[in-house]
Amino acid sequence: MVKLRKTKTQPLSSVPKSLIITPRLLRTWPLPQPDEAGDKETRGRVLVIGGGPEMPGAVILAATAAARAGAGKLQIATCLSVAPHVATIVPEARVFALPETRAGALAASGVAQISKHLDEARAVLVGPGMIDEAAIARFMKRLFAHINDTALVLDANALTLLAHASGSLTKLRGRVVLTPHTEEMAELLQTDEASVERDRTGALLAAVARFNAVVALKGRETLVAAPGSRVYVNRAGNVGLATSGSGDTLAGLIAGLCARGATPLQAAVWGVYLHARAGERLARKRGPLGYLARELPDEVPALLAQLMKS
To answer: Parallel, antiparallel, or unpaired for β 222-225 and 176-178?
Structure first.
């Protein structure tokens, strides 16, 4: 168990002013657009790492979202036992079958198998569907040694390592996006959930400073910030987004936007808003509850086209 401690919050005068994420704001911050004469390589490669026998669907959701966000080349690295099934469900992706532990977790030895692809990817997402904290820690330690100039998105159980290894991200110089919910944020800051909820902005800024990363603190209002940036607040969305696989989809959107050339902060801000607006569109079609995370990515291309109109 992590020993709880209260987070230190910044004085009110030093807290950056917040910006509500709106279509108008996003149109002043347009995403990189591919050259009409370019090929899939110009839109960037994304590599999604995770999954396993218990949750193979997590990487499927994330990878699909990354492709819908505009990534040009899609790759997935997952456990040997489920790789053929993942490859069948996501025919657009190249799927790497990595060795797994007896518990069904990704084995650290698998990092060597994908080291070349880590260098070639413009964005790497790690975490969806991963299990076994000890195995994750071994895998992530070896992975960090191979990550150089790519953008890195960490989600779900991949975040657990950072509570005790914040220095792991130092060499990445802010090219990292963390996507914790309240419980994960409490673990990252070694505090309790009530403390995070009492001062979500303070917790966000504490995590940004500690990990030198872009952080998206998920919740009814999702907050996003980077070192030296203002705090971006998303108020779009609805309760239907609180469903299994929704976080995997959001992480995939952010990774896909990074792959097509967005900065980590821009990708997080746009990804959070696209995810929320996709939920709003599905609520109108299906009802406020009961739509599925797998349906969210299908709404994204039309939303992107709408938001990118001048």
So the answer is: unpaired
Contact 96, 74 (CB under 8 A): no
Please count the other Cβ atoms lying within 10 Å of the Cβ belonging to residue 203.
Answer: 26
Quote the pTM value.
0.93
Q: Which residue is it, tokens 């979500």?
A: 200
HSE at residue 166, side-chain half, CA atoms within 13 A, is 13
Which residues sit opposite 73 in a β-bridge? 45
Q: How far apart are CA 126 and CA 75, in angstroms?
A: 12
> In three state form, how does the secondary structure of the chain look?
CCCCCCCCCCCHHHCCCEEECCHHHHHCCCCCCCCCCCCHHHHCEEEEECCCCCCCHHHHHHHHHHHHCCCCEEEEEEECCCHHHHHHHCCCCEEEEECECCCCCECCCHHHHHHHHHHHCCEEEECCCCCCHHHHHHHHHHHHCCCCCCEEEECHHHHHHHHHCHHHHHHHCCCEEECCCHHHHHHHCCCCHHHHHHCHHHHHHHHHHHHCCEEEECCCCEEEECCCCCEEEECCCCHHHCCCCHHHHHHHHHHHHHHCCCCHHHHHHHHHHHHHHHHHHHHHHHCCCCCCHHHHHHHHHHHHHHHCCC
**Average pLDDT per block of 10 residues along the chain, 310 residues long:** 42 70 97 76 90 97 98 97 98 98 96 95 97 93 91 94 79 91 96 97 96 96 97 98 97 97 97 98 97 98 90
149: which 2 tokens?
């100039």
